[in-house]
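user: Kindly work through both lines:
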Amino acid sequence: MSSSSWPPELKAWVQQCLSKATASNKEAVNSELKQLLFKAHANGTVNTTDWSKVELASLKAQTQRTTHVPVPPRINITTTSFGPPPPSSSSSVPGQYIPNSSSFPSLATAANSDAGKKKKKKKNDGTAAPTSNSKSTFPSPYHFSQSAEEAEALARRAARFQKPTTTAESSSASVGGVGRWFGAEDENGGSGSHGLGMVPGQVGKRKMRGKGGLGYSGDEIMEVDPNVIDWDKHTIRGTCTKLEKSYLRLTSEPSPADIRPLHVLQQTLQLLKSKWKQNHNYAYALDQFKSMRQDLTVQRIKNDFTVEVYEIHGRIALEAKDLGEYNQCQTMLRQLYELGIKGHPQEFLSYRIMYLLHTRNRSDMATLLAQLTPAEKQDPGVKHALDVHASLATSNYVRFFRLYSTAPNMSGYIMDHFVERERISALAIMSKAYMTLTLTYVTTSLAFDVEEEADNFLIDHDAAIYTNLTVPSQTQAPNNHWRPLKPTYTPLHERIWDCRKAHQACAKGIEKYRVVDLKGQVD
């Protein structure tokens, strides 16, 4: 909406409101004007509203504070003596008592002597002392005499708060100005370069000076919102048409010729999805996805496509066990979901809960649990993650490994990173509760696929202690008495784990998982 499209009545009303604004209510007037103009523009009532009858609440509150000012009563006392009231005259007010100096001479003399003593104690401020013949005035509780220095100081202070009123333009600029709200018209009647178009500005815009490029140009930029930089004027729009481009960290201002626009990035995403299904080359996929994310960031593209890119990259990172890259995608997705962009927030919320369980971040976990809504808790993925959290909080390893076996979506990939930690903790509990256990029971309880995996896990932690490791030796053949027989090991499904002897090794194995590796964490 150009500057000429705003009705003159609206401009005059805004100018009147800005002229009434003071330093104390300038921000309130500015905010209320912005809301009214936005609402009127959205409803299409800019030209139909009688702006002369619209009152601002911020200015009305100021009027209520300043209209009723109680005037203190002034007492017309010319002397310090007291006496009977004089006879009424045409100039006197009925009921007003005016003392006479001739009454009570003793009190008048005493008052004059006291006043003379006080005057001697005053410092010499350059003013002439009153003569003895001058009349002493009774000090009023509301009006005091001022010295020349005090009067000069008050005059200087009042001058500091005075606003120039030479022209209408300067007065309006002191509080924001109508030109900054509707844009200055150029010679052709169009909107000037410094106008704000259809978006009204704010009182008290500030200037920013940068270092060149991407919103940091050396030119002065006028902000619409004092707290938000207007990046739209400096946003890059790419012109590159290559579908594949390697990732390179930016060390200078990016060139539009090296940045792919949105429609090219959409084609690139389809290409990367097909290639990932074919060969699962994570090094190639990581390089291409980071390059796509960089192009989206440089062009400030935040829409459904941006969410899709980060979600796919996050899932691929989980599948490749790259928690650092996944965490970067997760952090950006949280910001995009907060903007109201559609995606799969419930799925990645469950992943975030699993990630916090892996990192043992209790403070962030408590904050997240307090912010969950009833609808989010009913989501199957989120409910599964909360059940996992409850099983770990109560050390219920049986329930934990059942949930591990039935993890939905890609939660199992995150649980793979801390399942060994929970297995050694479960073995420490089991070794204190039982004397012996079959290896088959250990395999089933700790969600191993086969007994061989359970046996290798025990060997890695020096806890592979069995009561029947070998089969009893058989009778040697008479002709081979000089050659010892090789020991025969018991099959894995028949072995019995010695819990009591393996407890010390299990307790020592817990120390191995005290520190959690947080590669790439940016939270």
In short: Residues 26-43 form the longest helix (18 residues).
